[in-house]
Amino acid sequence: xxxxxxxxxxxxxxxxxxxxxxxxxDGVRLYLADGRELIDGVASWWTACxxxxxxxxxxxxxxxxxxxxxxxxxxxxxxxxxDLARRLAALLPGELDHVFFSESGSVAVEVAMKxxxxxxxNRGEPTRTRFVSFRHGYHGDTFMxxxxxxxxxxxxxxxGGVLPRQLVLPLPTTPKLAAEFESxxxxxxxxxxxxxxxxxxxxxxxxxFHSADVLAQIAQVARRxxxxxxxxxxxxxxxxxxxMFAGEQAGIAPDIITLxxxxxxxxxxLAATVASASVYEAFLSDxxxxxxxxxxxxxxxxxxxxxxxxxxxxxxxxxxxxxVAAIAAQLAxxxxxxxxxxxxxxxxxxxxxxxxxxxxxxxxxxLRQRFLAHGVWVRPxxxxxxxxxxxxxGSDDLARLIAAVYDVLVxxxxxxxx
Length: 418
Known about the structure:
Elements (H helix, E strand, L loop, with lengths): L21 E5 L2 E4 L4 E4 L2 H4 L8 H13 L11 H13 L4 E7 L2 H18 L7 E5 L8 H5 L19 E3 L5 H14 L3 E6 L3 E2 L5 E2 L2 H13 L3 E5 L23 E4 L11 E6 H5 L20 H16 L2 H15 L9 E7 L2 E6 L5 H10 L2 E2 L6 E4 L7 H20 L4
Parallel strand pairs: 3-15, 5-6, 5-7, 7-10, 10-11
Antiparallel strand pairs: 1-2, 2-3, 4-12, 8-9, 11-12, 13-14, 14-16
Helix pairs in contact: 2-9, 3-9, 6-7, 10-12, 11-12
């Protein structure tokens, strides 16, 4: 039932094996058209934090559909968007009080970067147009977002010659790198507007972790040189790292934060770019040209906002942070056995994220097929095999995922696929 008319993401359509056809979902399971049942180990690219088909979210979307599926935010507003913005502002740290809605994480990053640039223009600082970002970082596939991704190891090398040139530095994880980071920022401060980073976990760039101390160092340097601080919490937000937002673990409130993925519990596309009061105020003027001229057609979609409000209800009423702590403990214990395997470089866990890093990139298609044979959906990329399951996963299902990682690596090693 697959169609050659669907151009699939991150896939060489000429050589890739046929995709799996999913007919329905429930809880932490995917049910395929051929009758197979898979435990989802990656929560549909980290979105389905409450599992699939949660009745509370489903009821909220159905109820909203009866009233109004969508209305433009050009001249209108509606209760689902207003309620969600208010709740996000209350939940986020510091002065993050002003919420701009869009439909995807990449666009949320574009909006954040556009805000940071216009913030400088509105303040009479037109030469401060470059961004600091970090090696192994990933912020999306749209144009400006690509420019702050890792230019050498990321997915966007082909576009290097046409992207804006940003200041992409190693994360300051050692005293030497910290000194080099501060020196580089000092040398370029006159042309820099903001630092953008994924706090604690660089996800799609290789599931690389850093400490809250590193985050605090970066924030201190940004403040010292009057750079805006942008946290891309599209992957890390909503409890994935053990706190509702990763930046909390360093006690830091950024100037701008981007959110998406788990925002609606994996139900509908929605993203938010949230700015502090001080950033927002730079756009307030009698001069219309100082306004933020950006407007996604489906900004603040009512159905998506209803889903997001229902998702926030679940974070308030169900024990997600306790579940993340239990997942973290089980991942840390269960994945330790992988350290002994040939071809494994590292095993690490942060919140509900478990990573086995290999010595080199494996034969990915072969590895993914082996996971399917074990009845699990695990999608390794680069040189990492990782688990980011729904936060509601039970210990038995998580044990099956962990066992599958170990068994597949043993099989792949024996077959020469690692």
